[in-house]
Specification:
The complex is a heterodimer of chains A (79) and B (243). Chain A has helices at 16-27, 51-66; strands at 2-9, 39-45, 72-78. The termini of chain A are close together. The relative contact order of chain A is 0.33. Chain A is built from 2 helices and 3 strands, in the order E-H-E-H-E. Chain A is of the alpha+beta class and 79 residues long. Chain B has 243 residues and is an alpha/beta fold. A 9-stranded mixed sheet of chain B has the order 2-1-3-4-11-10-9-6-7, with helices on both faces. The longest helix of chain B is centred in the last third of the chain and has 27 residues, at 216-242. Classes of the chains: A alpha+beta (79), B alpha/beta (243).
């Protein structure tokens, strides 16, 4: 089973990297870009487990290590 | 006193820390590899500066799951003193032993420079023998020192007198120009509410000998050693005086 976990900064947390990318895009004359927020993507392959077990496992690793719940939120995308 | 300094893969201030506590402050320091599972007997644990696990994922995110960290967490929960410097601060936040998180510097630069720290409270082993409001010049060297916590947590840190150092101007004013990394409330160092776990982003161990041109850091480390020595030796002294 292949899944993707997206981790991004919470909306309330300032993202200086996203802002720097936005600034560069504007310097490159991509003036229609209004904002950029940077995040992380984890492509994960699971051994044969049922969906309920997979969901519990992915929630656990996302909360425990892939995202820091103080500053980040995560979303799981199923293929 | 007996100090254990944890070495993670990627720690790079472990030997500086060992040198200053061992040879300048004459304490018994032992480096302990992160794969060890037991700290053993000691009076202070130090998580040194560096880039544990290459800072992959997030600073401190993987180090906090190193085998030794279970023992460090037990030690802290039993009231043992734990001191994090720079990367050690990041590891302690990831481990939940200190509140908040350290994010990428707001300026996006890796900042390697002297900064000024104002002492906000003397109610911690690290600051007990410093003077409140006094300003110290100490170097920083980090890319992720931007302290963040939600507004309630910041307020709680202030209310519980847990902010140890704030970045300031040389004259001790808390202004944005004194803040090298965007930290909320100019926070440079904090302690937990039990006051036995404390950490700072700047490196006092890099400013502890006249040969390096600055000994302000030594005053901070001397305060720490003196505070802990008094705490750990006082029961024995008390018994002696009664006898």
């Amino acid at each position: 089973m292949k899944v993707r976990i997206l981790v991004r900064l919470k909306q309330t947390v300032h993202d200086p990297q996203g802002e720097a990318i936005l600034q560069s895009l504007h310097h490159m004359n991509y003036l229609d870009v209004a904002s950029v927020r940077q995040g992380k993507v984890f492509d994960i392959e699971l051994k044969d487990v049922n969906e309920a077990k997979a969901k519990a496992l992915l929630d656990e690793i996302a909360r425990k290590i892939l995202a820091n719940p103080i500053i980040e939120e995560y979303a799981i995308e199923w293929e | 006193m007996k100090i254990k300094c944890v070495v993670f893969p990627g720690s790079n201030c472990d030997h500086d820390t060992e040198h200053v506590f061992g040879r300048v402050l004459n304490q018994d320091v032992e480096l302990i590899w992160h794969k060890e599972e037991e700290l053993g007997q000691c009076d202070l644990v130090i998580l040194p500066g560096g880039f544990a696990y290459g800072d992959y994922l997030r600073t401190g995110a993987m180090a906090r799951f190193s085998p030794i960290m279970k023992s460090v967490e037990r030690f802290a929960k039993d009231g043992g003193y734990v001191f994090g410097i720079c990367n050690g601060f990041q590891v302690l936040c990831e481990a939940g032993l200190l509140p908040g998180a350290l994010m990428k510097n707001a300026c996006l630069q890796f900042r390697c420079m002297d900064v000024y720290l104002r002492v906000e409270t003397t109610r911690s082993p690290l600051t007990r023998y410093l003077s409140q409001g006094q300003v110290y010049r100490v170097p920083i060297a980090h890319g992720d020192g931007n302290y963040y916590a939600d507004p309630e947590t910041i307020q709680q840190l202030i209310d519980e007198d847990c902010v140890l150092f704030q970045y300031s101007t040389p004259d001790g004013l808390i202004l944005p120009e004194g803040n090298p990394n965007g930290s909320l409330y100019n926070i440079a160092g904090i302690c937990n509410k039990e006051r036995n776990v404390f950490a700072m982003m700047p490196h006092p161990e890099r400013a502890s000998e006249p040969e390096v041109g600055n000994t302000d850091g030594l005053l901070i480390l001397q305060s720490l050693v003196r505070s802990i020595e008094e705490k750990t030796q006082s029961p024995r002294l008390a018994t002696t005086s009664v006898a």
